[in-house]
Amino acid sequence: MAVAAIQMNAIPYDLQGNLEEAKKLIEVAVQKNAKLVVLPELFNTGYRVEDKDVELAETIPGYTINWMEQIAKQHNIYLSTAILEKGDVQGIVYDTAILVGPEGLIGNYRKTHLWNVENIRFAKGDNLPVFKTSIGNIGLQICYEIGFPEGARILALKGADIILYPSAFGKARRYAWDIATRARALENGVFVIASNRTGIEKGETVFGGGSAIIDPFGTVLVYTEEERDVIISEIDLNQVTEQRRTLPYLRDLNKTLFTQELQQIQKSSYE
Length: 271
Fold this sequence. Notes:
By secondary structure, the protein is an alpha/beta fold. It is built from nine helices and 14 strands.
């Protein structure tokens, strides 16, 4: 199975222009037989749009989701990204990852670890779903969460074969991105598809690129430093089983101990 990560710039507030650009790149991936395509975080609105978060946020399903569903159905593919989601309570916005397939909307995941001023912009999610599809079990994380091994570990323990990271990760911390993408794949025996932004917003936020597809052994199958690119790789889910037998981290994890320690930490924080 071929999978793809799209690396692109996005123009703040230009929904139609960003969708048109993304569609061109998706079609490149389709021409190369990709069955799963991942777009960067907030590819449709731009990232530094904090002054219009509420205005730009969409319901799920909504305009961008409908657009994704049409493309997925037309080309018989799976698509994932992260968008601004309008919460049920007025004024509440989430940074939410989406997975759609030929059958329509499969599910979504609200970012639980927020970077810097995202803690002011967004509310936090409260669950870590894994979605069973015809191409494998897929877990979703977003950008900054590449540095939190706990989320990926939980997704792996819940059966994820592939973890997607739609991202708008900064250039200043590319060193963390390059290490963490490989680490999350290796320690959990999963494929990681990490799609990152490029470009500069508000004259100060510089995105790092470096989109990559990584196998369960931590090997970078393909990556890119281009401003605008579509990277493709074949993946074999049998390697998930192979790596988990070779390095049985999931089998040997002392869940009881870690559960007890976490409960103690939580208890201490309230004392």
